[in-house]
Amino acid sequence: MNKPKKQEETTSDATQSEIGFADMDLTDEMMKSLERAGYELPSPVQAGVIPSALDGLDVMGQAQTGTGKTAAFAIPILEQLAPREEISSVQALVLVPTRELAVQVRNEFEKLAYFMDIKTAAIYGGHSIKKQIEELKRGVQVVVGTPGRVLDHIRRKTLDLRETWCVTLDEADRMLDIGFRPDIERILSSISRKDRQTLLLSATVPPAIERLAKRYMHDPTVLDFSKDAVSGDSIEQYYFSVDKAKKFELLQRLINRDEPEQAIIFCRTRRGTDKLAKKLKESFPNVGCIHGDMNQPVRDRVMKKFRDERLKVLVATDVVGRGIDVSTISHIINFDTPEDCDDYVHRIGRTGRMGKEGVAYTFVSEDDGELLTRIEVRINQLLEQVYMEGMELKREVKQDVNPERLAAVAAMRGRGPKKHRRRL
Questions:
Q1: What is the CATH number of the domain that holds 181?
Q2: Which of 225, 238, 283, 348 meets the CB 3.0–4.6 Å disulfide criterion with 63?
Q3: For the chain, which ranges sit under pLDDT 50?
Q4: What is the pTM of this model?
């Protein structure tokens, strides 16, 4: 396969953001579905990805969650599907890292296909494979699934991909992070159509993603919207320096002070998530907890309560929390400083979605200075330190002052904060 070809630099202030859905030559059914779903103007990601995908090109897009990327690949897929009476087997496959994201992406497809005769299915572990087989037998055109369960169906010969012309890898970096690369490669190798279109969406593009694209994509158009999402002004980013022993008290006071519409609190471990949620429930009744050790029905019930706003606070781990797409999340609180700076980007991407304002707080203890440095270099932005009376560290957090950090800080001070327009 050819090496990815970099397009001209793409930002949210480019002319693409001035394109309307009416300029994309979409069907009347799609235009009515967009209007019904509340879409007005395409986001920069949608304005960039949709025209290229409609032209049948492979596209590799770097964009955070909350930028409208699901619709960016769902719209061109739906527009190009053959009618069910012509082809009743699976025409498009979307791979996602988590069960929660599979359900959300499937729901978005159904919303955008409201005025079309199109059937979709979500297949993932933790649910009855028998019911999934029955659904697939009835005929679906779009399948959204996690790699492990998709591969399981392929091996059972219950998922027919002979007519599949489009494969989308959503949150590709996270799928590789949690070990799905072998499954993804087996799935891609099993799709026989040589005219296959591949769409790859990823918040980050590490070398592993570049190798995957080089091997399985045909001369992809590369669009980079990552700078817009990380440095955009819709998310205010702060950190507290706090002793580990006082983190819980700080959290309680912060929730009482800010009264978030909805908040996600991130912890590093499943055990820590359970423990923190249990303590919080003593003071705040509308607290839920979600992590990978919970069985799927329990996770589904928790997420339904959170989407219905019956839960105001959700304590989560990274792997599960990443798949949460709820527009009313106003606060992200990193109770534990993320050890991977990309996880920080993914965490704060739960708020400030589609142009709404959000705030992210990170609790930084004495040993977390190096982690804070990495985060600031990664997002090319200094986090502002804020204070809560009585919660300050006795000793300052020690941050590495290395040439990379100094260069980043100097550049930031020289140009000032970036401003980007954000549109629905």
A1: 3.40.50.300
A2: 225
A3: 1-17, 229, 231-232, 401, 403, 406, 409-410, 412-424
A4: 0.68
